[in-house]
Known about the structure:
It is a single chain. By secondary structure, the chain is an alpha+beta fold. It has seven domains: 3-76, Roll (SH3 type barrels), CATH 2.30.30; 87-166, Orthogonal Bundle (Arc Repressor Mutant, subunit A), CATH 1.10.10; 168-247, no CATH class; 262-320, no CATH class; 337-449, no CATH class; 455-526, Helix Hairpins (Orthogonal Bundle); 540-608, Transcription elongation factor, GreA/GreB, C-terminal domain (Chitinase A, domain 3, Roll), CATH 3.10.50.30. The strands form four sheets. The protein has a five-stranded antiparallel sheet with strand order 4-3-2-1-5, sandwiched between helices.
Amino acid sequence: MHPDLQKLLEAERINEAVAERLDKIAPGSFLLHKSWGAGKVVSWDLASKKVTIDFEQSSGQVMDLQFAMQKTEPLEDDDFRARKVEELESLRELSKSDPVALVVLLLESHGGSMTVDALETEISGAVVEAKAFKKWWEATKRSLRENKRVVVPARRTEALTLRAADLSPAQALVADFEAARDLKGMSKALEAIINDVALFKDEPEYLQNLLIEIDESAKKGTRIHLGQVLELLSLRDALIKSVDDLAHADDALRLANVLLAEEARLADEIGALPSARQRAIYEVFPESFGDRWVEMLTTIFDSVGSRGVSEIAKLLDEKGEMKALEEHLISATARRSLGPDALVWVARERNGMAKNVFGPDVGASILALLETDHLADGPRTTTRLQAQLGDDKTLLADIVNSMGATEARNFGRRLMECPTFNELDRKSLMARVIKARPETGELVSGEQSKRPEALVVSWESLERKQAELDDLIRNRIPQNTKDISIARSYGDLRENFEYKSSKDMQKMLMRRKSELEKEIDVARGTDFKGADASAANIGTIVTVKNAQGVSVTHTLLGAWDSDPEKNIVSYLSETGAAIMGSAVGEEVEIRDHDTDKMVNWVIESIAPYNP
Length: 611
């Protein structure tokens, strides 16, 4: 105890409890203030009840004795924060000579755990120059991971954690696995073990015990967390392959059996996994499905995401089974059912693995998917596909060069009418088409004279659009604003799923509002009465006949009035555009949507449409 206090205690001027508390702020002791940081008590005057402290942020600070006891907390002499006050130069030297020891010292002073942000606050500027901190921390992280004394998280928002000092590197990795609170954490820890499996050369018994824990956890999680179970079992199998004396228990859960039992759920679950894990899982398909393994891979091809389609294609190519994938892709593009990730892969591999698939149907499928996604009420799924069309400077040229003249014109027309693109992008894309196929240039030069600038629509469809816009402005956008405000209150926007989801919805709603306003602005309502039936026009019923004598009747109506089941087509649609302006007896080419082939038809009759 400080001599000044001992005298007061002996004179019975203070009691034992007060003396012990005052001793914590005696000269030479270290304190922590919330605002001023760590400090060292320089002197005190017990008679006037004042104490002078040199804080990091406020040197020579004079405080009332009672106030100092209330607003500070004592620090041990070996605490990192105390040493910053007393031994700053030695800490700076330590940051250069042994950064791992520096971090360990800091963590020991903070209960063994702290975030990277908190670590940066303690070190940057004082111990390590602020401008050099980022480079220093990247190098230190590598050293920490090699040393194994500290658990270094993948995310900056997660905490650094100090391991027990008496653990060997192998034991430290096992401790991380045992500390994992969920399947995802177990997979992460198991991957670290695989990366440093050589550490277990003298301690193989730890790995055999791990297999038991993995099996128990996988059996419990299959029903609810199938994707994470597949990842964990795949990593377990990779571990077994890398260690000679390691083997499955006789009753262990096998990856092949899980795949077979859960085949209906595989596409959605596998798609979220890293590429390497997906590949390892796909390689087990022959064992799981026997003769059906190729069929299973082609079935899930459209649904496993961008990483999955690449890995499946590579595997099938290596196994000599590419023909099956080609047949699947050709059929799916003809039906316009191929997903955006698969179409992106076909476009990228058009001169490689997908060269036998790439053709006119791919271009038509891309536009059809972009249009459908644009009109869908929800988050967009074709962003990457749209970016591919814009970023790949030769893609459009390759598409139209695979088409006949009529097909190229129809593709160009659909591209010009596709609502997904803004006016500037549409012109830029169309310029590529015209450069590759000059005959499509008439679409640009003659578009304004062929059709009125305004959109001709039925009054009913115009009212529907106006009602949708009104609902957006009055209900959906205000509600979304409230949702964003609520989500923001949950904190940490970087990891806040509700906030990100609400912001994505905001973008979609505002984009839709802008589109509706533009569409309504140029729309001209009509009841289609008095249409000129001397040729196929808006508001006419057109009957066409093919070479086999089959007749089909199309009703040409407004831009938003298509109803395929009733053979009502928009004058802007591919079929409507092909018929528009034709007279009785003239021949037109119309796409058969069942076969996707162009068929010649003759205009048989034209009559006014009577609502």
